[in-house]
Design goal:
Strand content: 15-25%
Oligomer: single chain
Number of strands: 33
Radius of gyration: 43 Å
Structural class: alpha/beta
CATH superfamily of one domain: Immunoglobulins
Distance between the termini: 105 Å
CATH class of one domain: Mainly Beta
Largest sheet: 13 strands, parallel
Length: 612
């Protein structure tokens, strides 16, 4: 089944003429498929024909092109610079118009043209026409045939001259009007000075003073609209219901000096309010820009919203973007479907797509990172090319530049991450302990000031936490179907008897200092400080990890309950639940010994009974 494509014609035909050489015209179009999706990065086949007289007229020139669509589905080519099928572009006599442009398109890059469109060239390519004009007037009076008689600028030489004395007293010698009679009749003239000095209640052209706002006004005194005209054509109307309507603007609204200056006034339905808002927009439609030079550089981008000083200022062809705030999405040119809400949010984005930034300076330095979400003041501000990050909270993921697929929820969450991927932090100041751990991968930190210092680790809570619990016991997979190399080589009594249970106190400050953990936040809450102090006083029962390591090595046992440091700032850890396994082995070994001893006891009892 052949896939149906459509294209939206954005023709900008620009004639260029070179000395003693044929000209050419620039042509642009956006290619979309039947689902209105852009056809991007694909070579297409196009046949261009210039028809004379009518849409079905004879072709005076035919050529082929094979352009490639860009990321926005846009193709650009020069008519007159393709593979010529017939005709000579430089021989076209543009004065014999009208001419029509016929385009035939094969989205698959061949010559099976499934899309055909014909449109009239409404404006003659004047540069080409002028280049082919050999008999143009030189502009010199002496080159004219049947030269007209020149006027000597004297009143007496005018044929059928009017009698000016009816309207004014004229000094014929000096050729100057010396005064005008007081106007009486409708046809009488009057000077500006006469009007300004008049005692009538009319409005003066040079301004008015002493206005009585209770009685003086500009408008109508009956139920008719007030109409404003330019060049005798209606441009603005104030209707009787108070509605202000504008005419001849292509269903668009432009308010402000330079707003919408270059709009082609077709049915674009744009709204540009503010000095130079939407200044360069030509074909772009369904855009809204409010603010000084908001959306200033756009040419064909559509469905964008820019609200704020210089918002979306550099956008040219980007679409479906929303920028609210001073300089929001300021540098965006081709990025699509971005949302920036806040001063300077996404200000440096150029062609990044599908980003959402809410908060001042959020995603500030992002250039071409995609699908990031930053909510909060200065969240993800230094991200440049990182993708698929989510930051919620003031300064969340603050240092991230190229890291991707990270999630940070809470003020300062994942603050120190720069290049790490797949990290999750939830809680105030949760995440990597310091800038030493800026490139961790697949780590998690949950809770206030929860810190991680190694990849593939999860930390729940900070060092002040004394208990982590739940309604059920912690569990993890233990399905034999997915275990390999199963051997019963766990030491029992040999390992257990080497362990030395101890009691101890924690020195939390020393551990934090050793790991490079910034615990300055704890001083902000006296309850946290108190909890840490109480924890350091508490006597704990357990093992020393280094002693467990020695016991395991002595047995040749690779004990999984011992977590060794992965780098110089990491600490030893013990998984106490893992001790159950060697304990079970020890109990079984001990039970075997008990049973053996029991048999020996029974045999001894029998011997004693026999002796009796």
């Amino acid at each position: 089944m052949k896939k149906i494509y459509s294209f939206f014609l954005l023709v900008l035909l620009t004639a260029t003429v070179l000395a003693q050489a044929p000209g050419k015209m620039s042509y642009q179009a956006v290619i979309r498929d039947a689902d209105n999706n852009l056809v991007t990065g694909q070579t297409i086949g196009m046949q261009i024909s210039i028809l004379e007289g009518s849409p079905s007229g004879s072709a005076v020139f035919v050529e082929n092109h094979q352009p490639t669509t860009n990321k926005n589905g846009l193709v650009t080519l020069d008519i007159g610079n393709g593979t010529v099928i017939s005709g000579d572009f430089s021989d076209i006599d543009w004065s014999n118009g009208p001419y029509f442009l016929k385009t035939e398109t094969d989205p698959q890059g061949g010559n099976d043209y499934s899309i055909t469109a014909t449109s009239q060239l409404l404006s003659v390519p004047y540069a080409l026409y002028a280049d082919s004009s050999g008999n143009a007037f030189s502009g010199k009076y002496d080159d004219l045939k049947n030269k007209p008689q020149l006027w000597d600028s004297t009143y007496s030489t005018i044929k059928s001259r009017p009698d000016l004395s009816v309207y004014a007293t004229k000094d014929m010698a000096g050729e100057n009007i010396t005064n005008l009679a007081d106007p009486v009749n409708e046809q009488d003239a009057a000077t500006k000075a006469y009007i300004d000095s008049s005692s009538s209640s009319g409005w003066k052209l040079s301004g008015n003073a002493g206005i009585d706002t209770a009685t003086d006004f500009i408008g109508t005194t009956d139920a008719t609209p007030l109409i404003f005209r330019v060049n005798n054509a209606e441009k603005m109307r104030l209707d009787t219901n108070g509605t202000l309507a504008f005419s001849e603007m292509g269903n668009s609204l432009f308010i402000g000096k330079g707003a919408g200056t270059n709009d082609n006034l077709s049915d674009n339905r744009n709204v540009f309010v503010g000095d130079s808002a939407g200044f360069n927009n030509s074909w772009g439609d369904l855009n809204t820009a409010i603010g000084y030079k908001a959306f200033y550089s756009n040419t064909i981008g559509y469905r964008n919203v820019a609200n704020g000083y210089w918002a979306l200022h550099a956008n040219t062809i980007g679409e479906h973007n929303t920028a609210i705030g001073c300089r929001a999405l300021y540098k965006n040119t081709e990025g699509i479907s971005n949302t920036a809400n806040g001063s300077s949010s996404l200000i440096n984005n150029i062609d990044g797509d599908y980003n959402t930034a809410i908060g001042n300076f959020s995603l500030r330095y992002n250039t071409d990172g995609n699908r990031n979400t930053a909510t909060g003041n200065r969240s993800l501000p230094q991200n440049t090319t990182g993708n698929n990050n989510t930051a919620s909270g003031d300064l969340a993921l603050y240092s991230n530049t190229t890291g991707s697929a990270n999630v940070a929820v809470g003020k300062d969450a994942l603050f120190n991450n720069t290049m790490g991927d797949y990290n999750t932090a939830m809680g105030y100041n949760a995440g990597p302990a310091s800038s030493l751990y800026s490139d961790l991968t697949n780590s998690g930190a949950f809770g206030y000031n929860a810190k991680v210092i190694a990849s593939n680790t999860i930390q729940i809570g900070n060092t002040s936490i004394e208990q982590i619990g739940g309604a059920v016991a912690w569990s993890h997979p233990s399905d034999g179907r997915f275990k390999t190399n199963i051997t019963a080589d766990v030491p029992g009594l040999e390992f257990i008897t080497k362990l030395q249970p101890v009691t101890f106190n924690w020195d939390l400050e020393a551990m934090d200092e050793f790991q490079g953990i910034n615990e300055s936040k704890k001083a902000e809450d006296t309850s946290i400080t108190k909890a840490r102090n109480e924890k350091e006083k508490k006597i704990y029962t357990g093992f020393v990890a280094q002693e467990v390591e020695k016991a395991a090595e002595a047995c040749g046992y690779n004990f999984s309950g011992l977590i060794k440091p992965t780098h110089e700032k990491d600490v030893y850890k013990l998984s106490y639940s893992e001790f159950v396994v060697p304990l079970v082995r020890a109990v079984k070994e001990q039970q075997k010994q008990i049973e053996s001893q029991q048999k020996m006891i029974e045999q001894l009892i029998k011997k004693i009974e026999q002796l009796q």
